[in-house]
Design goal:
- The structure is a single chain.
- Helix content is about 45%, strand content about 20%.
- The protein has 14 helices and 17 strands.
- It has a 5-stranded antiparallel β-sheet. The chain has a 5-stranded mixed β-sheet with strand order 7-9-10-12-11. A 5-stranded parallel β-sheet has the order 14-13-15-16-17, sandwiched between helices.
- α8 packs antiparallel against α9.
């Protein structure tokens, strides 16, 4: 066989051409041209292993689609085959290993072929295939040339793939950085907005010149914005727990119907304030599921809150629930803003918002649906969103599997949020409140004094231990994070001298492990800051009425 160009010229042309390429496809086409120039070969192909480990055609000349379909995936080597060598078949009719493919090969009028491995970093990444119309045995010079071309091509393919992966990683990093910057800007805005209202009204109240009506309004504004800020902080903490893998689910039998009733009832005032029709269709004979009622309440609350936020006045929201295929299916459908098709795949991603501009109409951090997805997945369920497009509304679909072992009798009733019990009295009781933060200590003291208790305030665990030697306390309320002696060491020392004193931990550490550690350290109950009065009073009543005290 006569070459059409000197081997050195072929290799130089190949090297120069490959150096200017940016894609694997370009490299493969250049390689086929080099084979044609160097071997006067009209028919050849290049196959590369794909991500599934299957040898696929990447480029070809002079072979039919039927042939490619019949032989694709065949390879004499595995990716990890050590020291693979070229395989030359001078006459295909005499090669037993090709017997199964012989009818296809003969119909393609191939009389001889050669398999040339493409090797990079000790691994086979693909192969050259050389096809001849007549029986042919490659000469030593031909094998050297095609092997040299194969080495250059294998190196170029791997280099190009690495560069493409680096570009993708760089683009992903830039996108992540952009999303982080947008999120931090949004976070700053969302935290400062309620803080502005709180500080502004506090400054007005400090003037002392406020009418009774304005005073009531100020209290409402401060309370509403404080709750908003607390929810924002809790969402941020939840995302942190998700990222670190520490967001835990406390499994128990759950009845979905009353849970949905609670969520819808809680959202009804907001819907009515926008003149939105909120319709619930929930059968009450739904089976029990195994899950965390508090977290499922959070999921449904996030989804329904989003629906109310993005539905304009006069719109409609439907909440439907049914039992289908061994699962409870919940749908929240609104007639609101809808979702653009290009954003729909990212609607449950953290830190993603369809509109993050300063002129956006709707506030929020864009974390609610990301948290919802994680919580539903923790319940072995599914959540997805569908929308016909902007202005055409959105439907969120939730699917929760039904536990085969749960029973209706085992399911607890879902209670509505506890209201402050004005009739709860603590007359004649002495409460020892321990907190190194003065404002927090005074707040707790004011709460218990309002219900008739005598309160002794201490700003350290050491002073509390001294008070207990002189005062007969009926209840201990203690912070955890305090200087020198923390709450855990405090309760350990208290239990040595007052083993039956009711004690409740009140702490800003609100991780699941913190909640578990408090009882194991010796506290009878635990409440997370910011403290809600009904929750704390319910804990007080529970520990005071416990038969162990």
């Amino acid at each position: 066989m006569t070459t059409t160009a000197p081997p050195m010229a072929v290799c130089l042309t190949l090297t120069r051409a490959i150096s200017q390429t940016r894609t694997v496809e370009e490299i493969c086409n250049i390689a086929l041209q080099a084979l044609a120039d160097g071997l006067a070969l009209s028919r050849s192909s290049i196959l590369l292993y794909d991500s599934d480990g299957v040898m696929r055609f990447a480029a070809w000349r002079g072979i039919s689609a039927e042939y490619r379909c019949a032989v694709e995936g065949h390879s004499p080597w595995r990716p990890d085959t050590p020291n693979p060598e070229p395989l030359v078949v001078p006459n295909v009719t005499l090669e037993p290993s090709l017997a199964a493919f012989l009818p296809t090969i003969e119909s393609e009028r191939i009389a001889a072929m050669a398999f040339i491995p493409l090797v990079s970093l000790g691994r086979v990444i693909g192969k050259f295939m050389l096809y001849y119309d007549e029986p042919h045995a490659l000469s030593t010079n031909e094998l050297q040339l095609v092997s040299l071309i194969a080495w250059q091509v294998a190196f170029a393919v791997e280099r190009t793939r690495a560069e493409a992966q680096a570009r993708r990683s760089e683009a992903a990093a830039e996108e992540a950085s952009r999303l982080k910057d947008e999120f931090l800007a949004t976070l700053s805005h969302e935290l400062r907005t309620p803080l502005n209202a709180i500080l502004g009204w506090v400054q007005i109240l400090q003037t002392g010149i406020v009418s009774p009506e304005r005073l009531r309004h100020a209290i409402d504004v401060i309370g509403r914005n404080t709750n908003l800020q607390a929810r924002l902080i809790e969402d941020i903490l939840d995302v942190s727990r998700i990222i670190s893998g520490k967001l835990e689910i406390e499994h128990a039998p759950v009845l979905i119907a009353p849970l949905i009733d609670t969520v819808v009832s809680g959202m009804m005032p907001a819907a009515q304030g926008k003149n939105i029709e909120l319709v619930k269709t929930t059968p009450h004979d739904l089976p029990v599921i195994d899950g965390d009622a508090k977290r499922l309440h959070q999921v449904l609350g996030n989804v329904l809150s989003n629906a109310v936020k993005f539905t304009p006045g006069g719109g409609r929201i439907d909440v439907r629930c049914a039992y289908q295929d061994d699962a409870i299916v919940i749908e929240v459908q609104d007639s609101g803003a809808g979702i653009a098709p290009e954003f729909l795949p990212y609607v449950f991603d953290r830190f993603r918002q369809a509109d993050s501009r300063a002129i956006r109409r709707h506030g929020g951090l864009g974390l609610g649906l990301a948290i919802a997805r994680h919580l539903i997945e923790q319940h072995d369920g599914e959540i997805r969103a569908t929308s016909a497009g902007p202005g055409l509304g959105t439907t969120v679909h939730i699917r929760l599997p039904v536990s085969a072992d749960a029973s209706d009798e085992a399911a607890p009733r879902v209670s509505l949020p506890v209201e402050l019990d004005e009739e709860f009295r603590m007359h004649g009781l002495t409460v020892l409140v321990v907190d190194d933060q003065r404002d927090s200590c005074e707040l707790l003291a004011a709460l218990f004094e309002r219900h008739g208790a005598r309160v002794v305030q201490c700003d350290s665990a050491e002073s509390a231990l001294g008070v207990l030697t002189d005062v007969e306390a009926n209840l201990l309320i203690a912070d955890i994070a305090m200087p020198d002696i923390d709450g855990y060491e405090l309760i350990r020392r208290v239990r040595a001298s007052h083993p039956s004193l009711p004690a409740i931990a009140v702490s800003a550490y609100a991780r699941p492990q913190d909640r578990r550690r408090a009882p194991s350290a010796g506290f009878d109950s635990y409440c997370a800051k910011p403290v809600e009065a009904p929750q704390l009073l319910r804990a007080v009543r529970s520990v005071m009425l416990s038969p162990f005290h």
